[in-house]
Amino acid sequence: MKCFNHEADAIGICKHCQRAICKDCCTDLGFGLACKDTHESDVSMLNSLIENNKRAYESQPKATMFGPLFFIFMGLVFSYFGYQKGLDNLSFIIGVGFIVYGIAIFVYNKLFFKKVTTEYET
Ligand SMILES: [Zn+2]
Ligand SMILES: [Zn+2]
Question: Most buried of 5, 40, 43, 115 (most Cβ within 10 A)?
Answer without folding.
Answer: 43
